[in-house]
Design goal:
FAD/NAD(P)-binding domain; 8-stranded mixed beta sheet; alpha/beta; 2 domains; 4-stranded antiparallel beta sheet; Flavocytochrome C3, Chain A, domain 1; 15 helices; binds flavin-adenine dinucleotide
C-alpha cells in the first residue's frame, strides 16, 4: 500500500491450524449478507452451486429505498428510454475517468435484464409491485439538463402489498433483500448468521476457502469454486476514512446500520491474501440530513454562502454536490439563503413537481422555524447577524447573485437559469447546509469480471468482490446521474458473479455487447 493508504494493524494474527474446531466444504462461499451478498447467494444457488453465506450479524443487512437499473420492463412500460452509452460515459466522467469503464458499462448494459428477473420474482412469488420512483433526486425531467446535471429515471421501488410474505419495513430495499435471501434458502443455500469471516485460505495463488468464527470457535469452510466478498464498504471504520477520504469525517451524521457492519473486513482480508486496494479515490454516498422541501441540497436550490458570507459552490440540488462543497468549507459551515418568494421559485425550479412540493409547505415552514432549523429575519443585515456572517459581504454576494438571476446566466458557477432564485423580497430566510454520510464504498481492485487483482493487475484465483467492497466502480463522488446505482450495481454484479461462478464461466464470456472489444481490459 502507498503512503496515502491505510496501513494500521486492524486484523488479528493469522489463526493457527490447531485452533480450527470444524471443517466443511461447498462450491461457493459468500461473505456478507447485504444486498450484494444475498443476491450473489441467490444467483449461485439458482444455478446449481452449493452455497454458504456467512454474516457477522444475526440477520441480513438492508437499507435505503431506490434500486437503480437501466432498461427494465417497468421503465419500458413507462416510456423511459435511456441512452446506455451516454449513461455509462456520464458515470465514468463523474469519477474523473479513474474507475473501470468496463464495469460501469456492464452495469448499464446488464442491470435491466438482471432486475427484470427479480421484478418477475417479486410479482410472481412475493406479492410485491415494482414502480419507478420520481421523488427527490429521481426527477422525471432532469435528463434534459446539460450533461453534468443530467439524471435519468432509474430508481425502482419494490413495494409490499397486503398478503405479501415479506415483512414490513421502512426501507423498500429490505423487501428485495428478504426476497433474495428467502429464494436462496429455497435453492439450498445455507446462511450462517453470527459468523464472522476472519481470514481467506489460499493454495498458491488461489483462494480455496475462508476461516470464520462463531460462538463455537474458528471454523474452516472450503470453497471448490470460489469466494465472493460482499462485506460492504468502510463506512464504520473511522481510521480508514481518515486515511482515504478524510472530508467524509466532517459530515454531521453517520448512520450506517448495523453499526460495525462496514469495517472494511473484506478489504483487509483481500489485502492479506495479496490483493490491491482500488486506486480510485473513494466516492462517499452523502446527502443532506433533512429532506424537507426548502432545506438545501435535495429538492430545491438556493444561494449558498460560506462563513465569510461569500458564494462558494454551484447550488444545484444534485445530491451530493452541495454537501461535498460544504464538507470543504472553512469552519465546516455554510448557509442557504432565500427570500419570501420561495413558492414562486419552487414553481420555476420544479414545474412538474411543484404541486407536490408545495402541498404541506406552510406547515413545514412553521415547524422548521420553530425548531430553529430555518432562521427568518426582516433584513439581510439582521439575517447576517443571526447566522454570524459579515453583513457587508452577504449583501455584496446577494447583489452579485441577483445580477446573474436578472441576466439568466450564472457567470460564476453555471447554475442553469431555471434554478437561479433571486433574494429580493423580505423577510429573508437561512438554513444550514447539512451533510449525512450514508455509505462509503471503497474496496478492492478488480477486473471486468469483478475478480480481485494484485498490485500487478494479476487475478487472484477464486476471489471475487461485489457490492461496496468491489472497487473501481465509483470514484471521487457518488454519481446520481443514475439514482439508485449503489444498490443497482450490488445486485447486478452480485447476480452476474454468482451465476458465472456457479456455471464455471466469467462475466465477460456472457456479457459482450455490440462493438465492445473485451481484449486489453
Ligand atoms: C440509510 C441508508 C439509505 C440508503 N439509501 C440508498 C438508496 O436509496 N439507494 C441506493 O442505491 N443506496 C442506498 N444506500 C447505500 C446502500 O444501502 C449501500 O451502498 C449498500 O447496502 C451496499 O451493499 P453491500 O451488500 O455492499 O453492503 P452491506 O449492505 O453493508 O452488507 C455487507 C454485509 O456484510 C457483513 N459483513 C461485513 N464484514 C463481515 C465479515 N467479516 N464476516 C461476515 N459478514 C461480514 C455486514 O455485517 C453486512 O451485513 C443507503 C444506505 C443507508 C445507510
Amino acid at each position: 500500500m502507498d503512503g496515502r493508504q491505510f496501513t494500521g494493524p486492524v486484523w488479528p494474527a493469522a489463526a493457527e491450524p490447531g485452533d480450527i474446531v470444524s471443517e466443511e466444504s461447498c462450491d461457493i462461499v459468500v461473505i456478507g449478507a447485504g444486498i450484494a451478498g444475498c443476491t450473489a447467494a441467490q444467483a449461485a444457488s439458482e444455478n446449481g452451486a452449493s452455497v454458504i453465506c456467512c454474516e457477522k450479524f444475526g440477520t441480513f443487512s438492508a437499507h435505503g429505498i431506490d434500486i437503480g437499473s437501466v432498461g427494465t420492463r417497468v421503465q419500458k412500460a413507462a416510456g423511459v428510454e435511456i441512452d446506455k452509452a451516454l449513461a455509462a460515459r456520464l458515470i465514468y466522467e463523474w469519477g474523473q475517468q479513474q474507475a473501470n469503464y468496463h464495469l460501469i458499462r456492464t452495469y448499464v448494459e446488464k442491470s435491466g435484464e438482471v432486475l427484470d428477473r427479480y421484478i418477475d420474482m417479486a410479482e410472481r412469488d412475493y406479492g410485491m409491485t415494482v414502480t419507478l420512483n420520481d421523488d427527490m433526486t429521481a426527477r422525471a425531467d432532469w435528463n434534459t439538463l446539460e450533461d453534468k446535471y443530467k439524471q435519468f429515471q432509474t430508481a425502482h421501488l419494490f413495494n409490499r402489498t397486503e398478503g405479501s410474505p415479506i415483512r414490513p419495513s421502512k426501507w423498500n430495499a429490505a423487501f428485495f433483500v428478504e426476497m433474495v435471501c428467502d429464494s436462496a434458502k429455497k435453492n439450498g443455500a445455507r446462511f450462517r448468521f453470527n459468523t464472522t469471516a476472519e481470514q481467506l485460505v489460499k493454495s498458491g495463488n488461489t483462494v480455496t476457502g475462508v476461516l470464520v468464527r462463531d460462538r463455537d470457535g474458528l471454523k474452516k469452510i472450503n470453497a471448490r469454486k470460489g469466494v465472493i466478498l460482499a462485506t460492504g464498504g468502510i463506512t464504520d471504520n473511522k481510521e480508514m476514512i481518515r486515511a482515504w477520504c478524510p472530508a467524509a469525517l466532517r459530515a454531521d451524521k453517520f448512520e450506517n446500520f448495523p453499526v460495525g457492519s462496514n469495517m472494511g473486513d473484506g478489504l483487509v482480508m483481500g489485502v492479506m491474501a495479496g490483493a490491491a486496494v482500488s486506486r480510485c479515490y473513494p466516492a462517499p454516498i452523502i446527502h443532506p440530513v433533512n429532506f424537507s422541501v426548502l432545506s438545501p441540497g435535495m429538492n430545491t436550490s438556493w444561494l449558498t454562502v460560506n462563513r465569510d458570507g461569500r458564494r462558494f459552490s454551484s447550488e444545484m440540488a444534485y445530491e451530493p454536490a452541495v454537501t461535498n462543497a460544504r464538507l470543504n468549507a472553512p469552519g465546516n459551515v455554510a448557509w442557504a439563503i432565500w427570500d419570501d418568494d420561495y413558492k414562486e421559485h419552487i414553481k420555476k425550479q420544479e414545474s412538474r413537481k411543484a404541486r407536490k412540493l408545495l402541498e404541506n409547505i406552510d406547515e413545514g415552514m412553521a415547524r422548521a422555524l420553530e425548531s430553529g432549523e430555518y432562521v427568518r429575519c426582516g433584513s439581510l443585515e439582521a439575517l447576517a447577524s443571526r447566522i454570524g456572517v459579515p453583513a457587508d459581504n452577504l449583501k455584496a454576494t446577494v447583489d452579485r447573485y441577483n445580477g446573474w438571476c436578472a441576466k439568466g446566466e450564472d457567470g460564476d458557477f453555471g447554475v442553469p437559469p431555471r434554478f437561479l432564485s433571486p433574494v429580493k423580497k423580505a423577510p429573508f430566510y437561512a438554513c444550514k447546509i447539512s451533510a449525512y454520510l450514508l455509505s462509503l464504498p471503497h474496496g478492492l481492485h478488480v477486473d471486468q469480471n469483478s475478480q480481485v487483482l494484485t498490485e500487478n493487475d494479476e487475478p487472484i484465483g477464486g476471489l471475487f468482490a461485489v457490492g461496496n467492497v468491489q472497487g473501481d466502480f465509483f470514484a471521487n463522488s457518488y454519481p446520481v446521474t443514475l439514482p439508485g446505482t449503489s444498490h443497482g450495481r450490488s445486485i447486478t454484479f452480485g447476480y452476474l458473479v454468482g451465476r458465472a461462478l456457479a456455471l464455471g464461466k466469467t462475466i465477460s464470456e456472457e456479457c459482450s455487447w455490440d462493438t465492445w472489444n473485451t481484449s486489453g481490459l
